[in-house]
Every structure is written in structure tokens, then in C-alpha cells.
Amino acid sequence: MAAIVTGLVRLVQPSLAALNECQGSIIWYSLLGLRLVALFVADNPWSSIKPDFACNRTMDSFCLILCFNSSFNIPFSSLWSFSFMAALLPVFLMRLAQKGSIKMFRSKDMEMMEPCEEGQPKVTSGSTTSKVFPYCCCILLLLALELSFLWAILALQLPRITPRTFVCRTGGHCPEDVQCAVFGRSEKLMALIVLAFTASMNAIACVACFILELMQLKCSHKK
């Protein structure tokens, strides 16, 4: 719990700084914080998946392990952690695209700026495109990661826990097939729904931000 709180504090600090800088990074740090909380909520019911696994026949430990592996042959918590680590990459690249582009293209922008009638500088569309393009690429990368994570939850993980009971097939290594179930099924099911909700929210935010960036780029071309 202390590690979760420490991680949230580290996410909140740059978010507050982003508010002062008006660079729009707070939405991505907020979504990462939401995912971190969802991981903490989902880890509680799923951390005891092995002790919660039970069958209607007495089996030795070898057959029970085979039965468990055949029923849950899809990674769960490790996939959640990997998705969070993968989402950090495009968010980090967005931060670089926002700050690094200003430094990299500052001299080029000064050359490409044209005077307008009032004597104020006017930034050309080529300068704006050079800044928006890497940021949009990062948004699309994050969108692809979130949609992949959402598909993994809905298509791979959720069907494993949706049935109340399931037949355990060990492939002939044990005498016969048995009926098995998982204790706390509703809590585990709700944990997956929470993770799917956060992935959906992140995907919607990516689509909205991408559309806004395109609209701003289109307006800059018209000016």
C-alpha cells in the first residue's frame, strides 16, 4: 500500500506542474494514476487465485496444478503490470515531444516566423506541423496499447472467469475430468471490469486528444 501511495504522489507532482505550464500533460498523468489505482484494486481479489481454486474431487497436487494451468493458461496480473509499463513509454515520449520540440525547433521557428500587419510575429503552419506530428504519433501508440489491453481483458481473461463452473481437462495425465470453480468469482469479475473501464477511458481520451490536435493543426493551416 505504501508503494502505491508513493507512486501516486510522484504522479501528482508533475501533474500540478503541468497545470502551471499549461502543456496539457495532466490528462495523461491522471489516466496513469487511474490505471495504478485500478491495478491495486484488481490485485487484491486476484492475488489469492491459487488458494481459491477448488474442484469437486480430491486430487493430488500434481493433478491440481495441471488442472489449474489448463484452466488459467492466460497471464493475468503479469499482463496488467506489463500494460502499465508499456503505457509509460508513449506518455514519456509525449513529454519529450512537448518540451523537446520547443527547444529543437526554436531557432527554426524564428526563421519561419513571418510579420503580420500589426507587426506581431505569425507562426507558419510548417512549424506547427513539426510539433504536432510526434505528439499525435505518441497518442496513436498509446491508443493501440490501450485497445490491445482492452481486447486481452474482454476476449482472453474475462471468458476464463465468467462461467460459474468449468471442466478441468488434464490431457490424460490424471484419471478423469473434474468440475472446478473459483472462490470469490464476483469480486474477480468486477476487478476485470474495472481494468476494462480504465482501458476504455484511456482509449476515449486518446481519440479525443487526437481529434483536438488535428483540429488545431487545421486551424493553424487556415491562418
Summed over residues and divided by their number, the pLDDT gives a mean of 77
Number of helices: 7
Q: Helicity level, as a percent range?
A: over 70%
Note the beta-strand portion.
Answer: 5-15%
Helix/strand-derived class? mainly alpha
CATH topology: de novo design (two linked rop proteins)
Widest sheet: strand ordering: 1-5-4
Write down how many β-strands occur, each being a DSSP E stretch of 2 or more residues: 5
Domain count: the total is 1
Radius of gyration: 24 Å
Q: What are the segments in which pLDDT stays under 50 over at least 5 consecutive residues?
A: 15-23, 119-127
Using the coordinates above, name the CATH class.
Answer: Mainly Alpha
**What CATH architecture would you give?**
Up-down Bundle
CATH superfamily: Gap junction channel protein cysteine-rich domain
Most strands sheet: 3 strands, antiparallel
Give the SSE order as H and E letters. HHEHHHEEHEEH
Shape: elongated
**Terminal-residue CA separation:** 51 Å
Brief overview, please?
The chain is mainly α and 223 residues long.
Model description:
With 223 residues, this protein is mainly alpha-helical. The chain has one domain (2-222): de novo design (two linked rop proteins), CATH 1.20.1440. Helix content is 73%, strand content 7%. The protein contains seven helices and five strands. The protein has helices at residues 2-21, 26-46, 61-71, 77-104, 106-112, 125-161, 185-222, and strands at residues 53-55, 114-115, 121-122, 166-168, 178-182. The strands form two sheets. It has a three-stranded antiparallel sheet, covered by helices on one side. A hairpin with a 5-residue loop joins strand 2 and strand 3. The termini are far apart. The model is unreliable at 15-23 and 119-127 (pLDDT under 50).
